[in-house]
Amino acid sequence: MYRMRIALGQINTTIGSFDANVDAMVRYAREAAGQGAWLIAFPELAVTGYPPRDLVERPAFLEASLRGLERLAEETAELGIAVVAGYAAPSGKKTGKSALNNAAVLRGGQVLFQQTKMLLPTYDVFDEGRYFLPAERQELLRLDGRAVALTICEDAWNDKQFWERRLYQRDPVAELREAGAGMLLSINASPYHMGKRALRREVFESAARHHRMPVVYVNQVGGNDQLVFDGSSFALDAEGRLLASARSFAEDLVLVDLDDGSGGLHADFEDETEACYEALVLGTRDYLRKCGFRRVIIGLSGGIDSSLTAAIAVDAVGRENVTGVSMPGPHSSEHSITDAREMAERFGIRFEISPVTGVYDRFIEVLAPLFAGAPPDVAEENLQSRLRGVTLMALSNKWNALVLTTGNKSELAVGYCTLYGDMCGGLAVISDVPKTLVYELSRVANRRHNGAIPESVFTKPPSAELRPDQKDTDSLPEYEVLDAILREYVENTASTAEIAESLGLPLELVRDIAGKVDRNEYKRQQSAPGLKVTTKAFGIGRRFPIAQRFTAH
């Protein structure tokens, strides 16, 4: 009987890049075979990339998926290693969805076994029920005298011993264990959010102990649009003890021998703030790379948000590909320019100054007859922000560089941002980062870059500088208070009364913040895509109507 020496092939796939995805799997399979692996497992939908979304509704996409699987089988035929890979296939059914989320086991150029995903998640960022036909039943993988429970992501996440309230009636792992499985092999495309890596370990440690069998968990890595996949693949023994682990936020190959309990333990990020920073770097790098961009432009205000965005950009694409632009207006402070320049010099990025005051004055002159009789208000403030957006987008077109927006989650939540102004850009890097976390992540950036962000940036009061002596606290509570309210309202869906009681805050304050969140949905749905790093981001995983009058305040 073969030794259960299994390779975890943690790869970074690009959606629809079938040749590149298969090339990566062939390369990893060869390396694993050279190290004596009996089997190598790749992530969910590794042939197509995940999530393919509406692409699976195109027959040509499913045909390309099948061709990719066929090529993978052919090019690993002589290696003698079994290859497990996820792919999309036509369902062949006259009723129901036209596609299947499948896993195939390949060896010797042949497809030895296929499994179809049974539990299709339709919550948060997942919408698989829209695309795939679920399996009615699943079979044991029997290979070389071994009985394996081969599952695809959600199929292994419904253990009644772990969850107080399960989402599904069926538990594929329990059913396959009852049928005689001796180990669990789970291939996944599980996106990152803070705390998710620890949660996964807890789920599968519980499954290993409950079912008294070892677990091999393989996860996708890389950024695909708004989602960042951290990888963090691992193997556990039947007592839930860690045998092997892959790195987080990087491609990796790690082997585990389930017969003798040996395995590779690769370095990881123990601090979750460090992990979040790395997730933002990976998500930014892959968004640019997979969309065909090399260079970025950032509006540098001398504030903490644009400073953090610049740091992430430098780590994502290199200092030589980052340009910071200072755009002082009529109410800009001197330190907004000096802090931005100092930081740009420390990071070694290109720095330009393009004042908007002259253009702003001309606009005010032209609009004066139309504004006659109306006092100055948010219209004049937003005009400054929109002139900055125009400047950045003009440079983006001229230099073929993507504008990175610099707004944080706290601002986006309450609408403290300007449509077609500071919201202009192609990627909202920190749009899921609350303001208090911005400061923590900026400390991470400074540890990596020898204090490139000046200390004055950390200590100055946050301000949009759109009117004289303006501070964020003129319109908002302190960010520690605001972020606590937003966390409960947005991420935990608590009522305003529950929030006020639990945080010891005035009910009217909480209602005011909740009202701002609700009223600014129209802005968020016009914003650039952002990278998800919390349990509930403003994006594909949060779907509220714009025109609605429901209130729970």
What does this structure look like?
There is one protein chain. The chain is α/β, with parallel strands linked by helices and 553 residues long. The protein has helices spanning 18-34, 59-75, 172-178, 196-211, 272-291, 304-317, 334-347, 357-371, 378-399, 409-414, 435-448, 455-459, 479-491, 496-503, 507-519, 521-524; strands spanning 5-10, 39-41, 82-90, 99-107, 110-116, 141-143, 146-152, 183-188, 215-219, 221-224, 227-230, 234-236, 242-245, 252-257, 262-263, 296-299, 322-326, 350-353, 402-405, 427-428. Strands 5-4-3-2-1-14-15 form a 7-stranded mixed β-sheet, covered by helices on one side. Strand 1 (5-10), helix 1 and strand 2 (39-41) form a beta-alpha-beta unit. Helix 13 (479-491) crosses helix 15. The chain is elongated. The chain starts with a strand and ends in a 29-residue tail after the last helix. The relative contact order is 0.08.
Side by side, the strands of the main sheet go: 5-4-3-2-1-14-15
Helical run tally:
16
Q: What's the average pLDDT?
A: 94
For the termini, the CA-CA separation is: 65 Å
Helical percentage: 25-40%
Tally of individual domains: 2
- Structural category: alpha/beta
Biggest sheet details: 7 strands, mixed
The beta-strand count equals 20
Rounded Rg: 26 Å
Q: Could you name the CATH homologous superfamily of the largest domain? A: Carbon-nitrogen hydrolase
**CATH-scheme architecture of the largest domain:** 4-Layer Sandwich
- What share of the residues does DSSP label as strand, in percent? 15-25%
CATH uppermost class of the largest domain: Alpha Beta
CATH third-level topology of the largest domain: Nitrilase/N-carbamoyl-D-aminoacid amidohydrolase
3D shape: elongated
